[in-house]
């Protein structure tokens, strides 16, 4: 399982003196990027392929408070991947210094062509590298329909209401 260890800094704490929501998001992003960089998705490679990752959603589940003073570990596993690598879903778990799971997150995203500004498939080599990440027990092959499973759509307002 891919993991990163973090020290909780003063800036990671919120008004309740426990780990702030923004810190969870930053720790997950750092963990994902660590894996990606170590597996051929560095800035140079992504620029060469003209791609970048985009996040559709991050659903975080909090089980227990965690406070400064001890390191925490964040894991990364692959929960889903489309056949062409365009869509991906990750699971992050947060563990305290005793290995207790205090939070979990499901995150879905895709790859975007940075010139066309449209979603794109992954080159074969990068697909293999991403698919090499440890899979969750409930791993599935993703389709476009999986990205719409929550039924959320934009709801514009009349500009006069602004």
UniProtKB/TrEMBL annotation:
<keyword id="KW-0378">Hydrolase</keyword>
<comment type="similarity">
    <text>Belongs to the 4-hydroxybenzoyl-CoA thioesterase family.</text>
</comment>
<protein>
    <submittedName>
        <fullName>Thioesterase family protein</fullName>
    </submittedName>
</protein>
<dbReference type="InterPro" id="IPR029069">
    <property type="entry name" value="HotDog_dom_sf"/>
</dbReference>
<dbReference type="InterPro" id="IPR050563">
    <property type="entry name" value="4-hydroxybenzoyl-CoA_TE"/>
</dbReference>
<dbReference type="Pfam" id="PF13279">
    <property type="entry name" value="4HBT_2"/>
</dbReference>
């Amino acid at each position: 399982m891919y993991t990163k260890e973090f020290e909780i800094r003063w800036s990671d704490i919120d008004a309740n003196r426990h780990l702030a929501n923004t810190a969870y998001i930053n720790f997950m992003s750092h963990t994902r990027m660590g894996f990606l960089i170590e597996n051929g998705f560095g800035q140079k490679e992504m620029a060469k392929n003209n791609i970048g990752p985009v996040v559709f959603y991050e659903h975080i589940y909090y089980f227990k408070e965690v406070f400064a003073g001890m390191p925490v570990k964040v894991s990364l596993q692959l929960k889903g991947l489309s056949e062409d690598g365009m869509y991906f879903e990750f699971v992050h778990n947060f563990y305290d210094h005793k290995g207790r799971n205090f939070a979990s997150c499901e995150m879905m995203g895709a790859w975007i062509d940075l010139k066309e500004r449209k979603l794109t498939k992954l080159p074969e080599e990068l697909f293999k590298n991403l698919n090499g990440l440890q899979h969750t027990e409930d791993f599935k092959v993703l389709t476009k329909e999986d990205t719409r499973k929550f039924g959320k759509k934009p709801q514009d307002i009349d500009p006069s209401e602004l």
